[in-house]
Amino acid sequence: MGSLKNVALPMLLALSLLHLPFAESLWFINYHIHIVNNLPLGNSPPNQPNLFMHCKSKNKDLGDRPMVKGQDYTWDTKLNFFRTTLFFCNARWVGHKSRRFDAFDGSRDERRCLEYHNSCMWSVRADGFYLSINNATWFKIYPW
């Protein structure tokens, strides 16, 4: 009888947590990550990529993407059960600089990216990487 109690009680607790509003908003929604190339063209032709972005997680490699000015690199993800989902990117500004940055960190972004359509929006600029949670106000998070 004690064995059933040890199994049933945690199961009931876990199932009850799944019905709480915060559980749905954290574990079952799609987060949309956008990275937009807002670098100056410099001497590059407008149709030639001046930014190369390679993003991946522990389990999923999104590949290397050449980006022209104004282009949006986007993907969707969900939080894993432990909220440790992490997508990081290597950015290379042709002829200038390169940098690795965390584009989506579940423990950091689960709440703040819910503000604007479940989106984390990044802008890559000449002085660094900016994040917006409302597509109006931008904050510099990473320098080059």
UniProtKB/TrEMBL annotation:
Positions in coiled-coil regions: none
Superkingdom of this protein's organism: Eukaryota
Keywords: Secreted, Self-incompatibility, Signal
Signal peptide range: 1-25
Principal location listed in the UniProt entry: secreted
Locations listed in the record: Secreted
UniProt entry tagged with the keyword Secreted: yes
Pfam families: Self-incomp_S1
Similarity field: Belongs to the plant self-incompatibility (S1) protein family.
The name this protein goes by in its record: S-protein homolog
